[in-house]
Design goal:
36% of the residues lie in helices and 35% in strands. The chain is an alpha+beta fold and 417 residues long. It has 4 domains: 37-59 and 343-416, conserved putative lor/sdh protein from methanococcus maripaludis s2 fold (Beta Barrel), CATH 2.40.420.20; 61-68 and 264-338, Efflux pump adaptor protein, beta barrel domain (Elongation Factor Tu (Ef-tu), domain 3, Beta Barrel), CATH 2.40.30; 76-104 and 233-253, no CATH class; 108-230. The strands form 4 sheets. Strands 1-22-18-17-21-2 form a 6-stranded mixed sheet. Helix 2 (107-167) runs antiparallel to helix 3 (173-230). The two termini are 73 Å apart. The model is unreliable at 32-37 (pLDDT under 50).
């Protein structure tokens, strides 16, 4: 009789498979707790950057980018509007002081100039007429005065003669009285003529002064009008290079419109944009350096523009003494601006760790070089090459300065050769 044989649940093969799974899981747990559980991480020696901490001279400076510009730029703004009739020079040309650049026409201004000239000529004619009238009037009054003077002399003679004759009873009293009255009349008339001459002279002088003032005022207006008319020809105010000329024959331009600029070629300045973080530490007189080949050039900040735009503000720098050869307008320079004097400090080379730690901690390498521990530090000033260490490290210490992006919250690094 056949007997049912029960199938075994725990075969050797099955037990071996389950044991292998448990063994793999145990190894995985051991790895996790052996490394991550203890905040440790194995790192390859070739994938980290180790730098020494040293006591050395340190100077804080910031790298900036500057653009070469002319030392001075004169803008060409139209003093008068009009239609462009002629252009005498092209954009980019070097012009001399007073050289014509372009000519405008303005019919309204021409008409105003003509009217002003006519007014001046009319006033000049009035002044001449007034002068002639004053002279003629003075001549007439002087003639009358001479006549009165002559009549007075004759009347005085007759009066004195009749007076003697009357005393001798040669002439009648009536004749004597008539000569006396006539003589007194002419005396008063002479006094009156003298007063009239004085008043007439004053009136004539005032009239002439008023006419001359009107004429001078009109003449000054004419001078100004001629100056405005002369402004229709735009000339170079200085010697330099004409740039950004915006003008075409036939175009109409408004008064005050900018049509270009003249760059003075006697020297150059460097316009630099500085991060707004340093606005309180940048001032005129600070120096910077520019390296060209093996030569270092020094620049000085001459002007600071405190207006912040897009997170930065501008400064103008000029070369001290020697200027680099073959520099051109618009060329870009890499400059280092020093923010203080050189002084001894504890320093470490710059590295990517700062972006992750904010300068609050760093991995310090053990004496045997096999491990690195997370160590609190305090970073002070910095320049493009070094950080200043204020606390947490000593000269001779070694630290890891590369980026910590992949280290997470690891407390200890195991350095593998």
């Amino acid at each position: 009789m056949d007997r049912l044989i029960e199938k075994k649940k725990w075969t050797v093969k099955r037990i071996s498979f389950i044991a292998a799974i448990f063994l793999f899981a145990a190894l995985l747990v051991l790895m996790v707790f052996g490394t991550f559980g203890k905040s440790r991480l194995n790192v390859d020696n070739e994938r980290i950057t180790i730098a020494g901490v040293s006591q050395s001279n340190f100077r804080e400076f910031i790298p900036v980018t500057g653009i070469i510009q002319p030392v001075s730029t004169i803008y060409l703004d139209l003093q008068e509007g009009g239609r462009i009739e002629e252009i005498f020079v092209e954009d980019g040309a070097v012009v001399t002081h007073g050289q014509p650049i372009l000519r405008l026409s303005n019919t309204d201004l021409e008409l105003s100039l003509t009217n002003q000239e006519t007014q001046v000529y009319n006033l000049l004619a009035q002044v001449q007429i007034a002068q002639n009238g004053a002279r003629q009037n003075t001549i007439n009054k002087l003639t009358q005065s001479i006549d009165v003077e002559n009549q007075l002399i004759e009347a005085e003679r007759i009066y004195k003669m009749n007076k003697q004759l009357f005393a001798s009873n040669v002439v009648a009293q009536q004749e004597y009285a008539e000569s006396e009255n006539y003589y007194n009349y002419l005396l008063k008339k002479k006094e009156l003529m003298t007063e009239i001459l004085v008043q007439d002279s004053i009136a004539s002088t005032q009239q002439l002064q008023q006419a001359e003032q009107s004429y001078k005022g009109a003449q000054n207006g004419l001078t100004l009008m001629r100056g405005k008319f002369a402004d229709l020809t735009v000339s170079a105010p200085v010697e330099g290079q004409l740039t950004s000329l915006d003008a075409e024959i036939g175009q109409s331009k408004s008064k005050g419109e900018r049509i270009g600029q003249i760059d003075v070629l006697s020297g150059f300045k460097v316009r630099v944009d500085v991060d707004e973080h340093y606005i309180s530490r940048i001032y005129a007189g600070l120096e910077g350096q520019y390296q060209q080949g093996n030569t270092t050039y020094t620049l000085t900040i001459k002007k600071v523009y405190t207006q912040v735009t897009s997170g930065s503000f501008a400064v103008d720098m000029e070369f001290n003494g020697k200027t680099p050869e073959a520099i051109r307008r618009g060329q870009t320079l890499q400059i280092r601006i020093a923010l203080g004097d050189e002084a001894e400090a504890l320093i470490i080379p710059r590295g990517g760790f700062y972006q992750h730690t904010g300068g609050n901690w760093i991995f310090k390498v053990s004496d045997d070089g096999k491990k690195a521990y997370r160590t609190p530090v305090r970073i002070g000033r910095q320049n493009p090459d070094y950080y200043e260490v204020l606390e947490g490290l000593q000269p001779g210490d070694r630290v890891i300065v590369n980026s910590y992006e992949n280290y997470g919250d690891i407390q200890e690094l195991i350095i593998k050769n």
